[in-house]
Amino acid sequence: YGVLNDMDHLRVLMISFTDFADLTNISNLTELTELHIGATSVTDLSGLANHPKLTVLHAQDLDATDYQIIGTLTSLNEIAVGKSGLSDISFARSLKNLTSLSVHHSEVANLEPLRNHPSLQVLEISGTKVETLTPVMSIRSLKHLSIQAPGHSDQMNQQIKQLRDRDVFVLDQI
Questions:
Q1: Cβ within 8 Å of residue 21, ≥6 positions away
Q2: What is the pTM of this model?
């Protein structure tokens, strides 16, 4: 990955299906605005701290479990995470510019960090342990919710109805 060291002007990087394991290998790419990384050997996301200009982060199919560093990337407006050991989305609390969040196939059960989020417009949830949308009900900027959760509870069905009544586009797949 030494060839990346000379590409300090790079703005978009996609790394997939490789043995790439260490984000410090791209630490000099400080102009990155988009990073798409998936199906790699990355377990430690702390190297993301070197990329304060990131506006888009897609991190799929990683062995990482600690995603809290994402909360320091305050320029992020789009995040897609999934197929990982992710269990906590509290990083979203500090991302005031976040407009789109996709969480797929993870251990996430609690959406509380999204309560009253000031800018979130799109929320996609599938393959998680989420059982209630109560925190989502407070997001006034929300325009689109996509949720795949088998066996919605009566409470969740009622919340979906309330969101639709607020003109939020809801795609729910049971």
A1: 40, 41, 42, 43
A2: 0.90
